[in-house]
Amino acid sequence: xxxxxxxxxxRLGEIKDLEAAAxxxxxxxxxxxxxxxxxxxxxxxxxxxxxxxxxxxxxxxGRLLEELQAEAADLDYDSxxxxxxxxxxxxxxxxxxxxxWLVAEMAKATALAHEAWVQARAESNYxxxxxxxxxxxxxxxxxxxxxxxxxxxxxALLDLFEPEMKTAQVARIFDELKAGLVPxxxxxxxxxxxxxxxxxxxxxxxxxxxxxxxxxxHQMGFDFERGRQDKSxxxxxxxxxxxxxxxxxxxxxxxxxTALFGSIHEGGHALxxxxxxxxxxxxxxxxxxxxxxxxxxxxxxxxxxxRSRAFWTFYFPRLKEFFPEQLDGMDLERFYKAINKxxxx
Amino acid sequence: xxxxxxxxxxRLGEIKDLEAAAxxxxxxxxxxxxxxxxxxxxxxxxxxxxxxxxxxxxxxxGRLLEELQAEAADLDYDSxxxxxxxxxxxxxxxxxxxxxWLVAEMAKATALAHEAWVQARAESNYxxxxxxxxxxxxxxxxxxxxxxxxxxxxxALLDLFEPEMKTAQVARIFDELKAGLVPxxxxxxxxxxxxxxxxxxxxxxxxxxxxxxxxxxHQMGFDFERGRQDKSxxxxxxxxxxxxxxxxxxxxxxxxxTALFGSIHEGGHALxxxxxxxxxxxxxxxxxxxxxxxxxxxxxxxxxxxRSRAFWTFYFPRLKEFFPEQLDGMDLERFYKAINKxxxx
Lengths: 345, 345
Description:
Number of helices of chain A: 13
CATH architecture of the largest domain in chain A: Up-down Bundle
Strand order of the largest sheet of chain A: 1-3-2
Shape of chain A: globular
Helix content of chain A: 55-70%
CATH topology of the largest domain in chain A: Methane Monooxygenase Hydroxylase, Chain G, domain 1
Largest sheet of chain A: 3 strands, mixed
Largest interface: A-B, 38 and 39 residues
Oligomer: homodimer
Order of helices and strands of chain A: HHHHHHHHHEEEHHHH
Structural class of chain A: mainly alpha
Radius of gyration of chain A: 23 Å
């Protein structure tokens, strides 16, 4: 078994390298790539994603998995070996249903759409983005059809983010939340003595906002020797290994919350990625358990930690050192309320 | 022939995508990657370079080339088709001799060495870099032996940069240059009324140096919509397509020449890359003709243009706007001489 497992790991390692390379190319596209690079980048991403897919769904990996599944039956369910075989087999079964061309088309369409989206966003020009969105929706429908589903088409796609989760379950969760939250938000937003958060929309120097965010990330435990923060049009986190995790934020002079809470949110994702166990590197296990679990980390940091009174009891005096003029006369309690103001978007 | 040529181009396009991806990963390593990313990056580069190599030296490409070489015999030597077949066949013959493992090892060793070199350089600690250099030299010897050579071992490696050039020819060129240059430099450096270039070592604000260099690059014709400049420990230029060309420079407060002439030099390389014909994209023809031809472009810009009186007649007044204090009282003629000062390194 050891030899077969090693062969599987070697193959999966190379596939993971291709995926990591594609992630670097996407990170670069969203942070530094000049607009002219878009067409070539789309081709490069299509090739990388297609090759990674083709190598993964090869008959050799299928044969190895089949043999290993039989042998892994005796292993502890939670052992690395049993988990690797189980998770890889689950992914294999799904990926086998997706044709190479669809993987390539999706990578290409997404890369081309990003550039169009950036431009459309800057110009508030939805029609410029619309054909790209149409193409991506069409490809996702093809993807769902290739994967197959019983109840709802979206079940096939949801399964890629939350294994085994069904659309009906998600709808039930949101129905329950809606029933409780909508009247609550309406009641708060309708109150006459609404919280005053005007202070968050004063002029805050961009470089100082950046420096404050870097300090918070550092103190959250984000290791800048094994990652970095950059700027992008929309914040995101990606990683090329647990030792190279990249998050981004965006900084607006007149919207204080954007950069800081973006950084704390992405910092939550990034800590999860930096915390993955080194022994799992270059295997499919070296990844978030699901999108929901990942988001639980970012939301925990952003909202439960970052908007807490304890957090601001510590950071408010520090923030005043960065922005003495803007926060002149402001006290912790009013700032804490402003940060937590509930309003209808 | 058309169908076979198309098949060849499709395969070469995907290989070029992998090479471009590897170039992005190297660019990232030298500009933004945190030190922790080194080990994973070395694996990723090894996988990408090895796969590109393995796909290129495949029997299928050999078969296509053989058939196309016969058919291309009637074509105009300089036509794109004949050139593609000829250049690809030349590269194929060379690459076939290099084993996959050596390509992977070389990529890995180089990536690991870069990080060690950066650290060793910062600490003036040669012993820290020495084992990496030893490894790279050893691998290059293996490479030369795999490629084969008649006269000198270095002939095999030189051929990778300057096709058909021999070590003996290069030695002859340098012997001739040395005979003329060494006495000349000695005579100039020994003069009592040496040129005074102290002005180049005053304190020049880094951001202003950067801004001035960006302006010069722009006016040289470098298209920032199809490329960008960043900072790195040692300047270099790379490209991911003619529409995405990256150059770097380094900025020292007290050494004015470093950033600007670095930018102009790399700008020469970058203009060559941006000027490659779009029709050749994603083929082996979309590349510099040789290292020597590439360097002819960078040196032309750096020395023949960038150190000329004409250049500074235009730029000296502009530079004074950036650095009025440093250049107070300095005239064009003395600055021009300082920029061109000859000294023994």
